[in-house]
Amino acid sequence: MTTAVSGRRPTGNPVALLGRVAVAGVREAGAIVLFGWNALVQFFARKGSRGLLARQMQFVGVESVPIVLMTAFFTGGVLALQSYNGLGSSALANTQVGKLVALSMLRELGPVLGALMLSSRVGAAMAAELGTMRVTEQIDALFTLATNPVRYLVVPRILACVLMLPVLVILANIMGIWGGEVVATKVLGVPGHQYMDTTFAAIKTVDMQMALAKAAIFGLLVGLMSTYHGFNAGNGAEGVGRATTQAVVYAAVAILVADYFITALMM
Amino acid sequence: MPSKIDLRHVKKSFGSKHVLADVNLAVPTGETMVIMGGSGTGKSVLLKCILGLVNVDGGMVMVDGKDTTKLKAPERMQLMKKFGMLFQGGALFDSMTVWENVAFVPLQAGMKPADAKKLAIAKLAMVDLKADVADQNPGELSGGMRKRVALARAIAHEPEIIFYDEPTTGLDPITADVINDLIIKLQKQLKCTSVVITHDLHSAFKVADRMAMLFEGRVLAEGTPAEMKKSSQPFVQQFLAGGSN
């Protein structure tokens, strides 16, 4: 009787609960893929929105530079500290710290931390902006003004993330290596030339390719998750808050899962 | 007179809630149709169904004699050029100035900003707003001014059909009457077809050429204001009298 009144099924059965969670997850994943497909179709259909793209590239890329660089610098420094202490003898440490910092930054920490910072700063803002536009009917207004909202709002944002995150990651990697160098040479006493020699000797083309490939894919994930959740926000201020949280959480999870599969494919 | 909009057996449900059960309504070309009904009777959903913002579950939405329910995205965007819509809250783009809002469609079509601004100021004049409003942000405007700017935006591309979603809700009686007068003035100037959703009876009787009463997902009664006043439907009489039982 209670079920009929509330319209909900009982949640006591763990198997049923698991099933519902799985179905909801698949439905959500399907909706995100369809949303991305729609954005892709609109990307190829788009015309004359360079101004919109430039504005988003400024917001996503240029304005994210300080936070990404600061994060990368201290990450490089911490890596140098941890690896120096972990390696034990200073002779071994002197020859390995630069290599460890460089490879860790290029292969993992540059792209992953850069993407997570982008998701926190840009993804949350995008989701909140689009969510507010949704609940104040601005997205509907775009539609009634004969403007496709996906083309006008979503495509430039996703594209800006895909184009700008690789640039940010390149800067982050340089900054991380420099942060490691500063800590290694000024704090730990590693000879400067030795640090740089081991760094450059360690870096291979495939590492740079991996960093850029990850950055572009993570950029796509940040842009897609942010715009999807913002675009589909509902129920006033609460809905916007939920959309913002979901955008950041979904993007972070997607980045970490994708990171594993890209690494496994490219190693 | 031929129908500009013709709704035939339109149905829309959200889950188990049948918002529009079977709506049949013809809006004659060049006239103002006021759709009345209590809160939650599906008036806004009906507008969104006509605009394609919400997909109908069944029935046909004919505009100029053609069914629009199966249109693909590019065709829908072409059709939208015929429409102008005044949203209840204005739905002005808060990242743009007033003139950029009003001239949104011309700017998207590639008009030079200087020309677009002149056009926007001319449209603002049509809704009795001065040029000095043009450079303000929507957030700086009062409720009545926001509605007027939104109205200027809705008419900027000279649509054939204008929709008004609760145009006087949230406004004081004097400002509300200014909006009513604007609806009548624009109707005469632009010679367009208008659909007004409202439960403000004063506004409804002032602007309407024809009226329809939506009740339990159907059009309960439809006719001229004089015919509606004489309607034999108890709910219509109750609604017009403003009683609760």
The topology string of helices and strands of chain A comes to: HHHHHHHHHH
- pLDDT < 50 stretches of chain B: none
Structural class of chain A: mainly alpha
Overall radius of gyration of chain A: 22 Å
Mean pLDDT figure of chain B = 89
Q: How far is the first residue's CA from the last residue's CA of chain A?
A: 57 Å
Overall spatial form of chain A: elongated
- Number of strand segments of chain B: 10
Strand order of the largest sheet of chain B: 6-7-8-3-9-10
What string gives the helices and strands of chain B in order? EEEHEEHEHHHHEHEHEEHH
> Biggest β-sheet of chain B: count, sense, barrel?
6 strands, mixed
Q: Helical residue percent of chain B?
A: 25-40%
Q: Rg of chain B, please? A: 18 Å
Number of helical segments of chain A? 10
Largest interface: A-B, 15 and 29 residues
Number of strands of chain A: 0
Shape of chain B: globular
Going by helix content, strand content and strand pairing, the class of chain B is: alpha/beta
Please describe the topology of this protein:
The complex is a heterodimer of chains A (267) and B (245).
Chain A: H1 2-6, H2 14-45, H3 50-60, H4 65-87, H5 90-135, H6 138-144, H7 149-187, H8 192-202, H9 205-231, H10 236-266
Helix pairs in contact in A: 2-7, 3-7, 4-5, 4-7, 5-7, 5-8, 5-9, 5-10, 7-8, 7-9, 9-10
Chain B: E1 3-14, E2 17-28, E3 32-36, H1 43-51, E4 58-63, E5 66-67, H2 73-80, E6 83-86, H3 98-102, H4 104-108, H5 113-126, H6 143-155, E7 161-165, H7 173-190, E8 193-197, H8 201-207, E9 210-215, E10 218-223, H9 225-229, H10 234-241
Parallel strand pairs in B: 3-8, 3-9, 6-7, 7-8
Antiparallel strand pairs in B: 1-2, 1-4, 4-5, 9-10
